[in-house]
Amino acid sequence: MNDGLGKAWELVESGDAGAVVQHLRSTVDTIALGDLARLLERVAQLVELTDLAAAAARLAQDPDHPQALYDFGYACIERGLAFAAVPALREAVRRVPDADGVLAELVVALEEEHRHAEAVAVLEQRDATLPPWPHRYLLVYNAIMAGDLDRATRHLDRLPAPQDRDWRPAHQRVQLMVGRAGLVGGVGRLDAQDLRGWHFVLTGGVLGSLSPYGFDAGMTGRYAYQQDSFALCRLGLHRLELILDAAGRRPRSVALLPDRSSRILGLAAAQVLGVPAEPFTGARPESVVVAYDLSEVDDGGLLTALRDRAAGQVLFEHATCWTDPPAVSADVSTMLTQVVVAPWGERLRRGPDGGVERGTADDRPIEEIAAEILRDAGEPDPGDGATPADPDDALVGFVSAVAGRWLAGPRDRVRSPGPVRSSRFG
Questions:
Q1: Cα-flanking dihedrals φ and ψ of residue 38, to 5°?
Q2: Who has the most CB within 10 Å: 188, 228, 300, 359?
Q3: Longest pairwise C-alpha distance within the chain
Q4: How far is residue 42's CA from residue 13's CA, in Å, rounded to a whole number?
Q5: What average pLDDT does this structure show over 351-363?
Q6: 182-238, pLDDT tens digit by residue?
Q7: What's the mean per-residue pLDDT of the chain?
Q8: C-alpha to C-alpha distance for 235 and 376, rounded to whole angstroms
Q9: Is 80 exceeded by the pLDDT of residue 426?
Q10: Reported confidence tier of residue 310, pLDDT bands at 50, 70, 90
Q11: Where is this region: Disordered (predicted)?
Q12: Rounded distance, CA 178 to CA 184, Å?
């Protein structure tokens, strides 16, 4: 028994299913499939996932059977364990190399783990006989996500329009991504550190600022845990104004989403832009819809209304979660963060005993808090000095170059961080 397997069984016996999964993430490739199945059967029993337990039991009994391999991989993906699905589905593909459905499921597992270059490699092994839908589409999409635009373009040229109407949005999505990349290439590097450039290619949104901390230590412009400030809120509104001006957009109103944080920020935005603020009512043209954090919006109807924009409508989100992106992609984001605490939220602070405690939320009227945002100078945080300079004129130049393809197409959710990677916690 190798060390990874032995440690996994110790964690199983302790009854800590979460710790087992965390351990397996870094050791799964060192564990035989039969052993992996037996481990996950026990884990599934601990948390009462009967479908996964049954699939794991079947694979443990016959770890060479293609159907058992596929069923186990499928169950792992369904239960958020795509990393464990990958070795099983790889083996299934090896045993039944012409099975299109098995290949597609392996690609799904690799996508879930953001292993896009590997997805491209397994699809290209079948290049001569690859079905166009969904397989060649998946090849195009994963090539984009891996940052290989030349390969993506070559395969997109070979991808016919889908006969099935359900695949037409996907076809449009990759066409828009490749088209946006053509514009960004004139002003950005589109390398593994060009966060603003790739954010636009993948989502169609403009990123207003880069994190000034840890750029060369794994963050690459994104935030992890962020206690937001009035200064950053004000800077975000300043950058929003610059973006609108550079793109030649003249909004007639600000639309306020119903949550408290969005209303606070929206009132401040209306003052900055010099337009009236009114509640969001749907497809109002030439408006700026202001969201503090779309992850906090749990109204499915509202999110559906935001996915397809009205003419000239701009969706501005101050804090966009990059580890679990919201259901719609904003047209402008001040920052990309994993966790954010608003300046008026329950913030961490040092207590009287020197320890860390959570403070109380600021319950002042929203108008007073909005006014405090406006009073702030909005000076950028100098940070640790490692983040590349990001002056206003660089942002204006970027927006001027890409404005022709901004605000085009639906606001699709993009689950992957794409070619620019950042460290996450938890």
A1: -65, -40
A2: 228
A3: 69
A4: 9
A5: 87
A6: 999 889 899 999 999 999 999 999 999 999 999 999 999 999 999 999 999 999 999
A7: 96
A8: 9
A9: no
A10: confident
A11: 374-394
A12: 10
Put residue 41 in one of left, alpha, beta given phi > 0 → left and psi -120 to 50 → alpha.
Answer: alpha
pLDDT tops 80 at residue 283: no
User: CB within 8 A of 18, min separation 6: which ones?
Assistant: none
> In a 10 Å sphere around its CB, with 0-12 CB exposed, 13-18 middle and 19+ buried, how is residue 396 labelled?
middle
Per-residue tokens: 333: 């984001």
Contact 276, 251 (CB under 8 A): no
Give the C-alpha separation, 422 to 198, whole Å.
13
- CA quadruple 271, 275, 279, 283: dihedral, nearest 10: -140
Distance, CA of 315 to chain centre = 17
Write the DSSP string, 214-266.
-GGGTTTT--SEEE--HHHHHHHHHHHHHHHHHTT---SEEEEPSSHHHHHHH
Only one residue has tokens 């590349």, namely: 388
Instruction: Give the phi and the psi of residue 169 in degrees, each rounded to 5.
Output: -60, -35
DSSP 8-state symbol, 389 = P
Residue 114, sorted as left (phi over 0), alpha (psi -120 to 50) or beta, turns out to be left
Cβ–Cβ under 8 Å, residues 351 and 211: no
- Name all domains of the chain by residue range, CATH numbers in brackets: 3-180 (1.25.40.10), 189-405 (3.40.50)
Query: CA dihedral defined by 34, 39, 40, 41, rounded to 10 degrees?
Result: 90
pLDDT at 1 over 70: no
Query: If pLDDT is split at 50, 70 and 90, which confidence band does 256 have?
Result: very high
CB contact at 8 A, 66 and 96: yes
Closest to 418 in 3D by CA, of 188, 192, 183: 192
Q: What is the dihedral of CA 94, 98, 104, 110, to 10 degrees?
A: 20
Strand order in the sheet with 253-256: 206-207, 332-337, 314-321, 287-291, 253-256, 277-279
**Token code pair at residue 359:** 């403070």
Q: What is the pLDDT of residue 282?
A: 81
Alpha carbon of 145 to those of 113, 346, 410: distances in Å?
12, 36, 18
285-292 average pLDDT score: 96
Q: Does the pTM of the predicted model rise above 0.85?
A: yes
Residue found by looking up tokens 């070795």 in the block = 87
